[in-house]
Amino acid sequence: MAPSASAGGKKQKKKWSKGKVKDKAVHAVVLDKTTSEKLYKDVQSYRLITVATLVDRLKINGSLARKALADLEEKGQIKKVVGHSKMNIYSMSTLLPDLQHA
């Protein structure tokens, strides 16, 4: 080898970043009184209601959100727009007649 090639020094090994670490979400598993009141008062005014919207806005567990949606639909406060095995989409019950006439 030529002495000029070794004089440049060695390249350092690439250090990989650990990536972005997302904080663990701490969502409620049981409905407490304040969350329950917010659920029955506010959710029926949402235009689009899914499990993900309830989890995001109310900070509740996904399985709890599914049960809450089924309960709200049974009481007639919301109506199912799309029913699929993977995802159900609901809307406020007063909005649906307007959509059918449009």
TrEMBL record:
GO cellular component: ribonucleoprotein complex; ribosome
Pfam families: Ribosomal_S25 (PF03297)
Keywords: Ribonucleoprotein, Ribosomal protein
Basic residues composition bias: residue spans: 10-19
Coiled-coil ranges (or none): none
Residue numbers spanned by region Disordered: 1-21
InterPro entries: Ribosomal_eS25, WH_DNA-bd_sf
UniProt-listed Gene3D superfamilies: 3.30.63.20
Family per similarity comment: Belongs to the eukaryotic ribosomal protein eS25 family.
Protein name: 40S ribosomal protein S25
Organism listed in the record: Trichophyton soudanense CBS 452.61
